[in-house]
Amino acid sequence: MKKTIDEHAERFSEKATEYDGSKSEEYHACRSLVIEHAAPTSEDIVLDLGTGTGAIALALAADAKKVVGRDISDGMLAEARRKADEAGIENIEFGDGRFRDPNYDGPVSIATSNFALHHLSDDEKRDAIETIAALEPDRFVLGDVMFFETPDPEAPFYSPEVDDPATVGALADMFTDAGFVLTAVERVHPQVGVLVGERVPIDRQTIDYDSDR
Ligand SMILES: C[S@@+](CC[C@H](N)C(=O)[O-])C[C@H]1O[C@@H](n2cnc3c(N)ncnc32)[C@H](O)[C@@H]1O
Fold first, then answer.
1. 73, 93, 121, 182: which has the fewest Cβ within 10 Å?
2. What share of the chain is helix, strand, coil (3-state, %, to 5)?
């Protein structure tokens, strides 16, 4: 992590009220893909980590049974709560929580995160993905800054002083090591993408190489 949790929290709180108006076309494309892949039904409980002002959480609430949003920034959470109140959304709960300590131990069927995990170092991302897997969601949808090609600090979405994105390959290893089967990889930009992991019971995690013989 290039900044401490407190530094990230303060940085986001300072820009919380302007945050929603400052997003790029690629951010919106990534957000739409996360929402599309999460696809909750009225039975699903969604945990959205690094929820910010609720871009993912609020969009999923209409179809989900319940959405739980967690973030480290009081300012971002205040915006998320304000937007939920304004929209009259009641099946949503925002609160303090971190990737590696979500401060939530209820049931989760879908975990999501958008544009947030890249603030953690790769070792911390691995811990975070294992923490998410331990909550036993059926699906984990991650939209984020991630490297499909050689990292380019001059290109958008990657500011080395605050960001610590992983390569797609490293993230894919973290997903599979945590017990997720990677079912979709969406490339939005050379430095932005969406990964979808599904949890498959251990006894079904074998590949039948002889299936068509
Ligand atoms: C770029 S914003 C993304 C917000 C939202 N997910 C979206 O799609 O607009 C990143 C968010 O991650 C949060 N964040 C950073 N580090 C975090 C951590 N370790 N645990 C939880 N949230 C974190 C920040 O406070 C911020 O609200």
1. 121
2. 35, 25, 40
Is residue 212 pLDDT above 60, yes or no? no
**Tens of pLDDT, residues 31-56:** 999 999 999 999 999 999 999 999 99
Closest ligand 1 atom number to CA of residue 73 = 25
Stated as kind and residue range, the H or E segment containing 202 is none
Instruction: For residue 101, count other CB atoms closer than 10 A to its CB.
Output: 13
Residue 85 DSSP SS3 = helix
Q: Does the residue 212 lie in any domain?
A: no
pTM: 0.93
- Structural domain that includes position 146: 5-204
Mutation choice for ligand 1 from 68, 72, 132, CB with most ligand atoms inside 8 A: 72
- Strand segments (E) across 10-65: 45-49
Stretch 47-66: mean pLDDT, rounded? 98
Here the tokens at position 8 are: 């990230």
Q: Is the pLDDT of residue 70 over 80?
A: yes
From ligand 1's centre to the CA of 169, what distance in Å? 22
Q: Residue 163: inside a domain, yes or no? A: yes
Indicate whether 38 belongs to any domain: yes
